[in-house]
Amino acid sequence: MAYQWDFTPVLANAPLLAQGLLNTLKVTGTSLVFGLALGLALALLRLSSRRTFAWPAGLVIEVFRTTPPLVQLFWFFFALPLLVGIEMTAFMAAVVTFSIQSAAFFAEVFRGGIVSIERGQWDGARAIGMNHGQALRRIVLPQAVKRMIPAFMERAIELMKTTTLVATISYADLLFAANEIAQKTFRPLETFTVAALIYFVVIFAFSLVARQFERRLAVSGESTVR
Amino acid sequence: MSLLRVTGLTKRFGTNEVLRSIDLEVRQGERIAILGASGSGKSSLLRCLNFMELPTAGVIELDGQPLGRERRPGERIYRESELTQVRQRIGMVFQQFNLFPHMTAVGNVMEGLRTVRRMPKPAARIRAEAELKRVGLGDKADAYPAHLSGGQKQRVAIARALAMDPEMLLFDEPTSALDPELVGEVLGVIRNLADEGRTMLLVTHELGFAYHVATRVIFLADGTIHESGTPDEVLKNPRQERTRAFLASHKQYSL
Amino acid sequence: MKWDFTSVFANTDALLAGAAGTLRIFAICLVLGLSLGLVVGLGRYARTWWFYLPATAFVEFFRNTPVLVQILWFYFALPMLLPFEISPLMAASLGISLNSAAFSAEIYRAGIQSIDRGQWDGARALGMRWAQAMRRIVLPQAIKRMLPALTNRAIEIFKMTTLASAVAYVELLQQGKLIASLNYNPIEAYTAVAVIFLVFLWPLVQFTYVLERRLKRDE
Ligand SMILES: Nc1ncnc2c1ncn2[C@@H]1O[C@H](COP(=O)(O)OP(=O)(O)OP(=O)(O)O)[C@@H](O)[C@H]1O
Ligand SMILES: [Mg+2]
Q1: Using CA positions, which residue lies closest to atom 24 of ligand 1?
Q2: Which of A101, A124, B213, B240 is deepest in the core (most CB within 10 A)?
Q3: How many domains does chain A have?
Q4: ipTM over 0.90
Q5: Residue of C nearest to A64 (CA)
Q6: Residue B251: helix, strand or coil by DSSP?
Q7: A180 in a structural domain
Q8: Residue C213 lies in a domain
Q9: Which CATH number covers residue A81?
Q10: Cα distance from A223 to chain B (closest Cα, Å)?
Q11: What is the pTM of this model?
Q12: Residue A226 falls within a domain, yes or no?
């Protein structure tokens, strides 16, 4: 017997899905902001000529790039609060985990971008009396960031996909909402299909924007190289 | 009185000794041309003078003030703030221009005034435009480096250095990366600076230009000053065999 | 707070079962993902629309949806269309394998595209057919360039296996949850799980760095 599709129960719960999507975007956006700031800090520490800075930064980056995000999330949600004696909501645990985790990846993007700037730019900046920080801020980073934009966007998209893990610690993101609705309405096929499509539409839209950016940068990059 | 005095300047990269105990004195208004084969240490010498490279040993005095302080005998340490001060007083122009591609010509020239000198934007712009006019690029203020020819880029780079009111200018092969037909416009600008009586050190392979503009010529070999004297002495009647060989191999650049 | 790992060591059996589960699903997804990826990758490179279009749609869909959503879809949604149940292992393997296939397809495609046209011409000049040229001449050279990216993919697959715990498949993280809830020792249990993953993955990550460096040096 062919399955009788029925989307009305899902549509009836559309507000729940919308709230879930909003929460997904909230976790993604917050983690992105903290992740970028922390990623830059980690990159600068790792590039430092002092081993006491470079080495711990490298360790943090490697550990967070190497271990599974879900293990990190569980650790921050279940273990850390007991360890330091604080209350941690699912949202906080998610933001902490995904900020540090994406920072580890952003750090490598920043580092790659900074070292890709030719030495002459540092020379030019220092020759007019800039100190290291000024040269970095005014000359090197503005050029590096432009080259890093595609990698950043790719990372941001990965981050949004990774945020679905918060559903496993019961934060009401889009996936969690879908799971609730599926159980309530006994319509898992329709609900999870709709949820998957929503994710696809949002993420695919971001991907298209990212690709557009990449193409434009590639074109302008060629024209400014000489 | 001497503006810059260098004693026992030594520079090593790892085990490679590039400069060996160089002594050099630069007086106000002097224009010193530095010649030497590739790898003889010309760039390293210039880069040590404004501390783009830190000397391994030796003392550099600016206006009679020794820079850095001695930590152990023969080893000096420098504060970054001291070095940024020195670099404002000693401008540098590079073979590869090193313009900032994300800023316009006038943006490049203003950058030091704004970021280092903290000059307000309108004043910095006026000053930068004046410097661009001085190098003949008054009409290119808002062009990006990507849209300038090599000769124009190098003139912007010179204006960028001049904007900081340096007491001395270092030129490291300023015309070597240029197409032959663009060399003249850059040398013309440098010549004007010479006529203003500016103090400068110039690494170049343009022997004719060195002969006419320099007050002194130094020939560098193996990281030491192999021969030094007036342009006539060094370029016309060199005493050292290696200087003669070097000049012979550069015959194509006639005096 | 004092760390006390005795309760973790007392559950070594559970952790070993978890490690076995992790390795099993990793092996399944590695083989399925990378081989299916090759087929899809060839499709992405193909000139015929009936191969190119489905391959492209596949890649776009699976790259642009989260793996966890895919796994839950296979576990909760797909059985509605099938006359049989789907086990946690099947659902998780399907999700992770298809997702990895989509990502590795792009690695294969880029690798094949990076091979100089002259290599194709040379093979064709010898009278080879397209498939022969691909198999004997192009792929062997492309594989070398793709190796770092493929090893990276393998690492990602290994990390993704933890998502199988969301459908209660017995793997390391699932066993960590179990130990934590039985012994009230989440700090030690989850730290132990994290360390075990580090032990597995650290050498693999260092190995890809070596591969990347070697490739950069050779080119
Ligand atoms: N940053 C550096 N690290 C290591 N070695 C260096 C560095 N800079 C220069 N060297 C070495 O120092 C030696 C002198 O180099 P330098 O650039 O001073 O020579 P040069 O006379 O300017 O040569 P050219 O005419 O080619 O510009 C060379 O052997 C070079 O390889
Ligand atoms: Mg040089």
Answers
A1: B38
A2: A124
A3: 1
A4: yes
A5: C198
A6: coil
A7: yes
A8: no
A9: 1.10.3720.10
A10: 8
A11: 0.88
A12: no
